[in-house]
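Chain A, query sequence.
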Amino acid sequence: MNRLIASFLSAVRQSLGKRLGISICLGIALVTAITVLGSSRLAPVLATVAEAPRLVPAILNGSPVSVLYVTRSSDTVLARCYPGFEPSLTLRAMGSNAEQMEGVLTCVSRQ
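Chain A, predicted structure.
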């Protein structure tokens, strides 16, 4: 009786092992195909999606600055300065393109 059960369990293990291996291989192939094909189709869409404001370190005229990127018109940015200072926004042309503007936000003394 024990020998019969042992041979039955052995057959079940072998059958499941083969099916499990095939399932894993098919799953990996499917995930790879979705990743390769899906990302190539989504890349242009993701590149143009508006995102939350983000602060990025940069160098401007040899000096370190922080660039705040705001890509959604519905976003509001709050600027707080140390006591005795207030925010000041100066508009200027962005690079050599006179039609595109950027703002330079600094904290200036109230005096």
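Helices lie at 2-47. Confidence is low (pLDDT under 50) at residues 42-47.
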